[in-house]
UniProtKB/TrEMBL annotation:
Belongs to the cytochrome P450 family. CDD domains: CYP_unk (cd20623). Gene3D superfamilies: Cytochrome P450 (1.10.630.10). GO terms for molecular function: heme binding; iron ion binding; monooxygenase activity; oxidoreductase activity, acting on paired donors, with incorporation or reduction of molecular oxygen. InterPro entries: Cyt_P450_B, Cyt_P450_sf. This is Cytochrome P450.
Amino acid sequence: MMSVTRPYQLTDLSDLMALSATTNCADPRAAYGWLQERWGRVAPVELEPGVPAWLVMGHQEICRIVRNEQLFSRNPHNWRLYNEGAVSPDSGLGPMMFPRDNAYFADGDKHRRLRAPLDDGLAGLDKQRMSRLIRTTCAELIDRFADRGRADLVNDYAAIIPMLAIAGLFGLGPEKRHELQRGLLALFGSGSDSQAGNETVERILTEAIRERRAEPRDDLTTAFISHSNLANDYEIQQSMVLMISAGYETTKTWIAQTLRLMLTDTRFAGRVRGGRMGVDDALDDVLWRDPPMANMPARYALADCEISGQHIRRGDALILGFAAANADSRVHTEDPWLEVGNRAHLAWSAGPHSCPAHRPGRLITRIAVDTALHRLHDVILEIPADQVRVAPSPWTRCPHRLPVSFTSAGAS
């Protein structure tokens, strides 16, 4: 039974857990559990020193928030601390939480207008062509290290595949990939280099827009430029930022976490160590236990209200704790027989802002994992499972490294 401490005001900055403590740790469920034991399903946390927010960890509570745009806005202009200047303009939170002219940060009619180019672009994807491209990409990446007998399945593989796939859809050449990848890594890290990373990403995309205006091609950059819903180059650029950054980070994390699971959990690894469950089961298990976005920024209360016993003031920021909500006993049990077919997880959120790209994301992730398990024989993780560390971020839990060894392609 939870023994909670209430009431609390976000103006009180004493004794708050950092949000990053729920992601940069060995046991996120224990961290979320500690918060719920003390505060209940809505807990005060610190985004960075001096910047508090509410972390919403209940499944029903998150669904209430994401389905009510009239009370909970996605627009950061409604964030009280941002308007008061309490968040530094140079804050590492900026690229993830400051206003942008794209669908992620808009509500109502503006959100629908800015989301349409993303939905249209995704609907127009040739799935068979995309599948062939991804399979070829995965095979070529593995060929690069197959003779070594060793690889890092994050930096040599999982981090590269979605960048090549998604950047390719926008017509971005391989010469831009590494620079774009470094910029996105910094952006999602929300650290001291976050703003610089964001500037790198925006510069690369601005150059792509200029090139496609001069020479249109059959790619998503050209499609965004010609879409009637996007009013100017800034909206085009920011819509590209949204689609590329969200698609890259979430898919990279999903691939890496699924590979980690297949290599370390005896329930899975059907082709690794005789486990009973396969790739699709592992993909779904990751969505429940380690979703690509563990904590999602943000909603802003448009009026005073109460959520799960906590008094939320107008202008308060609410972070959606998807990983915590997926463990909510009201929707998820530990009984595998009761969980067959359960798709109530919030890995893709819900409501008007639910992720539009979960199907292409699954396509990329499944092919990447399946190809690695087919092509790498006798593969084993070279470090104990409990020594797998995650890349620093308050939002995601992507393994930093997955060093593996396997029978090299040249072995007899």
